[in-house]
Amino acid sequence: MTKETKTLSQQICELCGIKPRRVKPLLCEIKGYKHLTCEFCVEEAGKCKTEKKVYPDFENPENFVRLLELETEPNQATVWCLVNTQARHFYKHTTYSRKTFLSLLKVILENDPKTTSDEQIELIKQSIRDYDGWVWG
């Protein structure tokens, strides 16, 4: 059995309590049949074997910018501001890549080492979880 490797986006979603969406492909091939919907798969096999789970992908440029600009409360600090402030605990400078930003966000959400208040972490998680403009997949 192979172990599923989780992306940074999946890990952040799980920390924030975002449930994956299940999507079915436009073209499914099972039992030698090719069809455009998975109704056959669901009826015949109980579950489409090609169905997959998707999460918001925070490395997607649209989602990444939305994440940076997301306010933790109306007219309050953005996620970028909070991560940038906390980054000083880890780095001497705060210029970093998209992947590094997401890694820092994950560390902050895990709160290990404890660098952020539990209330602030919960506000970040809730803001990410409640935002409905993410691009999924």
Brief overview, please?
The chain has a two-stranded antiparallel sheet. A two-stranded antiparallel ribbon has the order 2-3. It is built from six helices and four strands.
User: Assembly type of the shown chains?
Assistant: single chain
**Helix/sheet category:** mainly alpha
Overall spatial form: globular
Beta-strand content estimate: 5-15%
Low-confidence stretches: 42-46
Tell me about this structure:
- This protein has 137 residues and is mostly helical.
- Helix content is 44%, strand content 9%.
- The protein contains six helices and four strands, in the order H-E-E-E-H-E-H-H-H-H.
- The strands form two sheets. The protein has a two-stranded antiparallel sheet with strand order 1-4. A two-stranded antiparallel sheet has the order 2-3.
- A hairpin with a 2-residue loop joins strand 2 (28-30) and strand 3.
- Helix 1 runs parallel beside helix 5 (98-110) and helix 4 (79-87) packs across helix 5.
Comma- or semicolon-separated keywords:
single chain, 137 residues, mainly alpha, two-stranded antiparallel sheet, 6 helices, 4 strands, 9% strand, globular
What is the secondary structure topology, with strand pairs?
Elements: H1 8-16, E1 21-23, E2 28-30, E3 33-35, H2 39-45, E4 52-54, H3 61-69, H4 79-87, H5 98-110, H6 118-130
Antiparallel strand pairs: 1-4, 2-3
